[in-house]
Amino acid sequence: MAQQSLPKDKIKFLLLEGVHPSAVETLKRDGYTNIDFHKKALPPEELKQAIAGAHFVGIRSRTQLTEEIFESAKKLVAVGCFCIGTNQVDLKAATKRGIAVFNAPFSNTRSVAELVIAEAILLLRGVAEKNAAAHRGEWMKTAVNSYEIRGKKLGIIGYGNIGMQLGVIAESMGMQVQFYDVVNKLPLGNARQVPSLNQLLASSDVVSLHVPETGATQNMIGSAELAQMKQGGILINASRGTVVDIDGLSAALGSGQLGGAAIDVFPVEPRSNDDEFVSPLRQYDNTFLTPHIGGSTVEAQENIGMEVAEKLAKYSDNGTSTSSVNFPEVALPEHAGSHRLLHIHRNVPGIMSAINNVFSETGVNVSAQYLQTNEDVGYVVIDVDADYSDIALERLLAIEGTLRSRVLF
Ligand SMILES: NC(=O)c1ccc[n+]([C@@H]2O[C@H](COP(=O)([O-])OP(=O)(O)OC[C@H]3O[C@@H](n4cnc5c(N)ncnc54)[C@H](O)[C@@H]3O)[C@@H](O)[C@H]2O)c1
Ligand SMILES: O=C(O)[C@H](O)COP(=O)(O)O
């Protein structure tokens, strides 16, 4: 698909799910004024209509960008996930259309770690049920089953950006930290990596999940795993709702196998704040049930707004794709005085020589060339004399395996 450089006010940004106003400010500061801002996620049919004219779309964790939605998004150049997770985007569907996907891998990690440590403290003290009882007029003054976190063992599943920060905070509060991860990780402080999930479950007082949503993490904590945990142990999940089997968790809370749980993410979450939250866990006082707000702090949202908007603007301005989750990463200088051709193609043998032939055969002068590939996609950026970019673009588009090509003035 060919795209000529457009004036900035003709480049349309569709921003959904109430991304922070810092995103709009960042885009406007960079000259992008055509911004369609929505406070909520759109139902699929409305989304299809809204995305049809958009060059860039910004979403959070609720909007599902499926093959069908991408099919309606003929002008789409890039997706910005104003969050960490990208499981809501069909990355294969985006990649095969040459659409780059960006996210904010760090900006809300501290917010999640803080929430989890607070929940660990409150659950070990039995505050969730004491608070619920007090709201009903009951007075539960007792030290039974109330513990300090000092000296207790925290088991972290998924020792990535959030898991590592949580480990550091927990250790500074006197907890012993161990973690399980599919990758060998450098333990921070005195943390210790354990070789198996079962070992972690059996030896931790509090277990906290920080894995992404993948095939391997689907229902990774079910009845069998909960039975491995210490009697009265605490489970915290602020990762993705598909990671814990909620019926299994409900049974473990009902039988007293678990002493409490804090769950921020659910297999099915209400579409909006106006819809009812339905879950078997509502019956248990010893749980914190939060509406997917692990990353929802003013600080995190403001930073994410700026970070992702900057990535989209940079990609639009000069083709820089640094930190894209599905695309080869290229950090590009400005291209004053020349036109910049961006060529995105399937990474198949012979395609680079076909691209280079365009310039040797037409005699178009190349002032700079950048290339990066990943397993699926190749991304070539070529700066050429302004007078010849049209001819070169036409020839580039004819190359077999081309996914998308555009020229920036
Ligand atoms: N509740 C919220 O609001 C909220 C906010 C931010 C992130 N999240 C979720 O938390 C997840 C983790 O975030 P992060 O920034 O720490 O991600 P990350 O990618 O930095 O870390 C994930 C870790 O999990 C490990 N892992 C992957 N598959 C595993 C498996 N099968 N078993 C064990 N370990 C496995 C990885 O090796 C990695 O170390 C995100 O993917 C997102 O879904 C939720
Ligand atoms: O992936 C994330 O960063 C979290 O799940 C937060 O998503 P949200 O922006 O939709 O709250």
SSE topology:
Blueprint: E1 2-3, E2 13-15, H1 21-29, E3 35-37, H2 44-52, E4 56-59, H3 67-72, E5 78-81, H4 91-96, E6 100-102, H5 109-124, H6 127-135, E7 153-157, H7 161-172, E8 176-180, E9 192-193, H8 197-203, E10 206-209, H9 223-228, E11 233-237, H10 246-255, E12 258-263, E13 287-289, H11 298-318, E14 338-346, H12 351-362, E15 366-373, E16 377-385, H13 389-397, E17 402-408
Parallel strand pairs: 1-17, 2-3, 2-4, 4-5, 5-6, 7-8, 7-10, 8-9, 10-11, 11-12, 12-13
Antiparallel strand pairs: 14-16, 14-17, 15-16
Helix pairs in contact: 1-11, 5-7, 12-13
The structure holds nicotinamide-adenine-dinucleotide and 3-phosphoglyceric acid (3PG).
Residues 60-62, 83-85, 108, 292, 295-296 line the site of 3-phosphoglyceric acid.
Please explain how this structure is put together:
Pfam families: 2-Hacid_dh, 2-Hacid_dh_C, ACT_AHAS_ss. One of its GO terms (molecular function) is NAD binding. This protein is of the alpha/beta class. It folds into 3 domains: 128 residues, Rossmann fold; 182 residues, 3-Layer(aba) Sandwich (Rossmann fold), CATH 3.40.50.720; 81 residues, Alpha-Beta Plaits (2-Layer Sandwich). 32% of the residues lie in helices and 20% in strands. The protein has 13 helices and 17 strands. The chain has a 7-stranded parallel sheet with strand order 9-8-7-10-11-12-13, with helices on both faces. A 5-stranded mixed sheet has the order 1-17-14-16-15, covered by helices on one side. Helix 3 links the parallel strand 4 and strand 5. The protein is elongated. The two termini are 18 Å apart. The structure holds nicotinamide-adenine-dinucleotide and 3-phosphoglyceric acid.
